[in-house]
Write a structure and sequence with these properties.
single chain; 650 residues; alpha/beta; Rossmann fold; five-stranded parallel β-sheet; 23 helices; 42% helix; elongated
Length: 650
């Protein structure tokens, strides 16, 4: 029965890939035994409640092998039908790579290699923190594992190595990675590009390393997983030696990695594995087997957990109430509570952000995060000390110089549930985080990314550290809310929007330099994306449109223009994303099409041409000089802006 159940995975994968004439059959054929053993003996999930908070997480980091996951989830009883499998890689329920929120039982969008295993580190971290917060003697209400299947490609990605390093450092013992080690990748043998000793490497990074010599040896696989589960002080890598494309005449070659094997080869495979069933045909006893070994076992675990939580509620009512509050993912930021923090007349928005975050952390105990070795500069710091092996309750995560991993780990914490996660860095290093940010947007999850040092006003550090094209590039990402606040009021508004978001990631872009706090800026304006912060005092001659620190500059230029008899309006546009969600009527009220408009921003002009043909921006790289000299070099002063408006716009 075990062999039949394993082969059901293999042939559902092969058949679906053949019909699609696209996909990756090699990993499905090679990894099916380890995946089967994990699902049927260890993984606790409830197919009727796939969001159960105490379920084990399973991440297929090698997301190209998605048919392995879809076949397993179909057989286990998740909402994936045979018809869904027949439409693999078509518009529908089974896309080419697993997509969170799209297909039942998928824990994360794991297409780009290295992201899945990095998300898993975040999930394991979240489990560890929540367990420390809520578990009592005899009441381990947060008690689950995070399992990963990864491939050779995953372990070559930089983001994976960053995350693996941090996981070992933090001793995330309930993270277990099954490594499908088949020595083949798309271009050929792994040895052409990679020759590291996995055992030495992982042990040096604080992991337990285990080895299974034969990927078809179910007993050895099971023993290795059991041993991994007992080691609670270190994450575990189980290297399982497999044969890519097992059972086909192409086995052990790169030819079976990323292309359908074809119907004739599938017939050969059927003969080799004694599979007498037609394409997509699965015997009823196999479904019964998975129902017993996965579905019913998981439902029993969930029922037992519910009983434990009910007893916990009686014994620890306050903790139980807080636990439910964590899981609700509902936040309400009362602006009045922050009045003292935003009444400052002149301060850098990064400093205001830090003060707001500190107060938010005091009220919301599930707000967790940190910076990539830049805490003193970004002010993005978690509360209650440094998260470590010794202090699991602490909420400041020292990500180290690992920006890419930070982004993916923040996503993993967010995906886990129960926590609101953030990460901080210099804005120019959002380049290192772009894949994780993009995936947060694809998954529609409310991760928060805090970036300081937002323009050439970085100053002396020069072009390498002065963002130019980053705003335009990130504003182009669908379903991503990029907010660049002008002052203290808008910074508070940005945090309120970010914390209260339920399905949109938020980027908060902050200044290094001090900015004036304007009396007219507000949350009510920011939530609409753009609004008037300084009205025209006569017949409207034009509009100065800006974001961030340039809003204050626009107000200064407005005064100069008034002295010359020109009445202009100043519009702050902290969020293009939110402005585009407003009604056409509102958009026309704020930015009448017939009125000449100058957009002002110390960065690429590209994202502003949607609103005006006149942009006062920077389309070259920056310059190494003190702040004031850098601004003068690029003519960002009120006189030059006013002069440009008069000569080039009117």
């Amino acid at each position: 029965m075990e062999q039949k159940a394993i082969n059901a995975i293999r042939f559902l994968g092969v058949d679906a890939i053949n019909v699609a004439n696209s996909g990756h059959p090699g990993i499905v054929l090679g990894s099916a035994p380890m995946a089967y053993k994990l699902f049927t003996e260890h993984l606790n999930v409830d197919i009727k409640d796939s969001k159960w908070i105490n379920r084990d997480r399973f991440i297929l980091s090698a997301g190209h092998g998605s048919m392995l996951l879809y076949a397993l989830n179909h057989l286990s009883g998740f909402k994936i039908s045979i018809e869904d499998l027949k439409r693999f890689r078509q518009i529908g329920n089974t896309p080419g790579h697993p997509e969170y929120g799209h297909t039942d039982g998928v824990e994360t969008t794991s297409g780009p290699l290295g992201q899945g295993i990095s998300n898993a580190v975040g999930m394991a971290l979240a489990e560890t923190h929540l367990a420390a917060r809520f578990n009592k003697e005899g009441f381990n209400i947060v008690n689950h594992y995070t399992y990963v299947i990864c491939g050779d490609g995953d372990l070559q990605e930089g983001v994976a190595l960053e995350s693996i390093s941090l996981a070992g450092h933090l001793g995330l013992g309930k993270l277990i990675v099954l490594f499908d080690s088949n020595d083949i990748q798309l271009d050929g043998k792994v040895s052409m590009a990679y020759s590291e000793n996995h055992k030495n490497k992982f042990e040096a990074m604080g992991w337990q390393y285990l080895h299974v010599a034969d990927g078809n040896d179910l007993s050895s696989i099971n023993k290795a997983i059991l041993k991994a589960k007992k080691e609670l002080n270190k994450p575990t890598l189980i290297e399982v030696k497999t044969v890519i494309g097992y059972g086909t005449s192409l086995a052990g070659t790169s030819k079976v990695h990323g292309a359908a094997i074809g119907f004739a080869e599938a017939d050969v495979l059927r003969k080799n594995l004694n599979w007498e069933y037609k394409p997509f045909e699965v015997p009823s006893e196999v479904y019964d087997h998975y129902r017993k070994k996965v579905a019913l076992r998981g439902q029993r675990a969930h029922k037992k957990w519910n009983e434990l939580v009910n007893d916990y509620k009686v014994q620890f009512p306050k903790e139980h109430a807080l636990f439910n509050e964590f899981l609700s993912n509902k936040y309400n930021v009362d602006l009045k509570e922050f009045a003292a923090d935003v009444s400052i007349s002149k301060e850098a928005t990064r400093n205001i952000s830090g003060k707001v975050l500190n107060k938010l952390s005091e009220k919301h105990l599930n707000l967790i995060g940190g910076s990539a070795d830049l805490t003193a500069s970004t002010k993005a710091k978690g509360a209650d000390g440094h998260f470590s092996k010794e202090n699991r309750l602490a909420r400041n995560i020292n990500f180290g110089v690992r920006e890419h991993a930070m982004g993916a780990i923040v996503n993993g914490i967010t995906l886990h549930g129960g926590l609101k996660a953030f990460g901080g860095a210099f804005f120019v290093f959002s380049d290192y985080m772009k894949p994780a940010i993009r995936l947060a947007a694809i998954m529609q999850i409310p991760s928060i990314f805090v970036f300081s040092h937002d323009t050439i006003a970085v100053g002396e550090d020069g072009p390498t550290h002065q963002p130019i094209e980053q705003l335009a590039g990130l504003r182009a990402v669908p379903h991503l809310n990029v907010i660049r606040p002008a002052d203290a009021n808008e910074t508070l508004a940005a945090w309120k929007i970010a914390v209260e978001s339920t399905n949109t990631p938020t980027l908060i872009i902050l200044t290094r330099q001090n900015v004036d706090n304007l009396k007219t800026t507000s949350y009510e304006g920011v939530i609409k994306g753009a609004y008037v912060v300084s009205k025209e005092e006569g017949k409207l001659d034009g509009i100065l449109l800006a974001s961030g620190s340039e809003v204050g500059l626009a107000v200064e230029a407005q005064h100069l223009l008034k002295e010359q008899g020109k009445y202009v309006r100043v519009v702050s546009m902290p969020s293009h994303y939110l402005f585009e969600k407003q009604t056409l009527k509102y958009k026309k009220e704020i930015l009448p099409r017939s009125v000449r408009t100058l957009a002002i921003e110390m960065g690429s002009s590209l994202s502003w041409y949607k609103y005006t043909q006149h942009v006062y921006g920077i389309d070259t790289f920056g310059v190494s000089a003190p702040l004031e000299q850098a601004l003068e070099h690029f003519n960002f002063n009120k006189e030059k802006v006013a002069e440009y408006f008069l000569k080039k716009v009117l």
